[in-house]
């Protein structure tokens, strides 16, 4: 092939094999095809990415929106198969991965083996996420409900495992596991991840280097853990391979630990863990129809809302009794009750006598000031100052040195805001009482949910 990949069409197939993991466990893997064919693509402008992982994340988001082609400005050393490996962990099902390597007209595209069956699997995953799970359940209970459902409703397809060359591929897809009720590890782990995606549960697909077995990685209590439903289905117990750590799993599993760590460190970083954890405990952190928007700078209004929630006063604020006494005229009615209560308590001021400037961006100093106030520390008593709020939080033991270095090194966005909020939630007030204990006592958050996240 020539350097742009466009002169001679070619098709490369990664061969599959059928090794035996043990006498009881026959593992199969779906064929991955990378077809370099000069065919029409979307007229959308190509996008630039820093690396293969960034491109894979963007493409996974597109697939979730129903789009299947990504045009990109790719450097000459862009590793398309590495991009595929990341993509398969983020968004796995039975599909062909196509790409044209070029510095001027590169694209990657997904073509499902059977689009109708893929959509039926998606619909079933969405149904199950709604029927199996509810918000009163802990993450552990949600993961276990999905795990148990697949154990009870999916049979390991031994025939497909032994006859891969003649199989149609359903057993290697989420459709096989969710609709047919028969699948091999690929279909089972793809189905598990698909249900998790509809449930809003952190989950990725993980495969062995030889791609002869697959399972799932999940985020649990801020740590990457593993679930192998196939092993529990074909010879384990109902929970022998349910939420196990890397050390335990490595006794009989092999995988590219660096690749998994690189991905999970990126998608489940401290910012994500902060937002996700706070969303699980009393909805302390919430998004909009645009999601959590972790990369956007937070506003004064958003900071005020977080302070009210951390004071345990959201219910009091929402009764709206203080709005008429507030002098600010530039506030969205949805935000007004929060800001009015803080104004009454003397915990916030405006940018003028009649304006609050709710959309103005806040800084780390601004937000740390709010969090220290939430803990009960006071500027008037010289316990901290706005100018040195992060340093004062370090001195007071609210954050440690590594946490200080981390938050100080980043642009202050909603992700950092969530992480700082999470650190504050476990910190103690001047009397030594953790803020989270105060909020449990006030009925703002549930002890069960708190223990699910932290203990």
Question: Could you write a compact summary of the structure shown?
Answer:
The chain has 455 residues and is an alpha+beta fold. The chain contains 20 helices and eleven strands.
Kindly describe this structure.
- It contains 20 helices and 11 strands.
- By secondary structure, it is an alpha+beta fold.
- Helix 3 packs across helix 6, helix 11 crosses helix 18 and helix 12 runs parallel beside helix 15 (364-375).
- It has helices at 52-64, 80-90, 115-132, 139-153, 158-162, 174-180, 185-199, 229-234, 246-249, 257-267, 270-280, 300-310, 314-318, 336-345, 364-375, 389-395, 401-408, 414-425, 435-441, 447-454, and strands at residues 10-14, 32-36, 47-48, 69-73, 95-100, 106-112, 155-156, 182-183, 203-207, 214-220, 223-227.
- Strand 5 (95-100) and strand 6 (106-112) form a beta hairpin.
- 43% of the residues lie in helices and 11% in strands.
- The chain has 3 domains: 10-112, Translation Initiation Factor IF3 (2-Layer Sandwich), CATH 3.30.110; 115-270, Roll (C8orf32 fold); 290-454, no CATH class.
Give the overall shape, derived from the CA principal axes.
elongated
Biggest β-sheet, characterized? 4 strands, mixed
Tally of domains:
3
How many DSSP-defined strands? 11
- What is the overall pLDDT average? 87
Helix content: 40-55%
Low-confidence stretches: 1-39
The share of residues in extended strands comes to 5-15%
Q: What is the CA-based Rg, rounded?
A: 25 Å
Spatially, the strands of the biggest sheet line up as 3-4-6-5
